[in-house]
Amino acid sequence: MIELKSRREIELMRSAGMIVGETIYELCKAAKPGVTTDELNELAGKTIAHYGAESAFLHYVVNDARDPYPGIVCISINEEVVHGIPSSRKIKSGDIVSFDVGTRLDGFCGDGAGTVIVGDVPKEIERLVDVTRQSLYNGIEQAVIGNRIVDIGRAVQLTAESAGFGVVREMVGHGIGKEVHEEPQVPNFVARGFSPKIADGLVIAIEPMITMGNWRLKELDDGWTVITADKSLSAHFEHTVAVTKDGPMILTLRENGKAGFDLQ
Fold it and tell me: Does an H or E element contain 185, and which?
């Protein structure tokens, strides 16, 4: 069931979302050659705690078939699409690193993601990251009263595929509130079947996952990390967005109104 949020609940979610934005900002700044993903995970924990929140991902359980997620944040590199587990692995120049951050504060969650380029990469990789970011904002533009969820996916898909990139099908965006994952699902493509209408008070996480190859995925033996099946590079951007009568409101911006992945 889709639960619409009150203005007060959206304000609480903005507080949780602001911490997501600040944490992504700190992680993107700190992602340098030689830094381990464990060190970045620790930085995320300190940042989230500084604001009095907690990680919504640490010990997250999907089902009994896999162990609880062991990281404070998800850190995915290159062909890893989502759910990369922090470890002693060092970041190298030429990597693209995606951070997925979830927070919980005063009973409500925030969820956001961003991809950062470390060092110099070919222009086509820069274009992948740029197009993925743009597909997020094009999707957000469709999060208005009277549209349907499929309109968000159509905007993301058109943006990515018209640029020659693949759109992940097996992972989608989602509703968010007291739980980090709620109804409805928010696909990044034109999915078949019924598509819910977008209404005032709907809060969703829109999160394009775009690849340089095709959209098929593979899960690694750790039970969490998901990679592209063809080992092509992948980028991931996400904002938590509230639908209001004045248009979409991005809840995961930093306190200064900028996205955490905007380092300029």
Answer: strand 182-186
Distance (Å, whole) CA 81 – CA 84: 8
Is the residue at 110 inside a domain? yes
In a domain, 199, yes or no: yes
- For residue 73, give the nearest of 45, 32, 114 by alpha carbon: 45
Its domain, for residue 51, covers 7-250
Residue 263, in any domain of the structure: no
pLDDT above 70: percentage of residues in the chain: 99
Q: Which two tokens stand for residue 202?
A: 């709907």
Contact 89, 111 (CB under 8 A): no
In angstroms, the Cα distances linking 133 to 86, 105, 160, 203, 259 are 23, 26, 10, 20, 11
CB 5 within 8 A of CB 201: yes
Does the pTM of the predicted model rise above 0.90?
yes
State the first-to-last Cα distance of the chain, in angstroms, to the nearest integer.
40
CA proximity to 167, closest of 120, 129, 132 = 132
Token couple for 226: 């998901």
Using DSSP, state whether 151 is helix, strand or coil.
helix
Residue 11 lies in a domain: yes
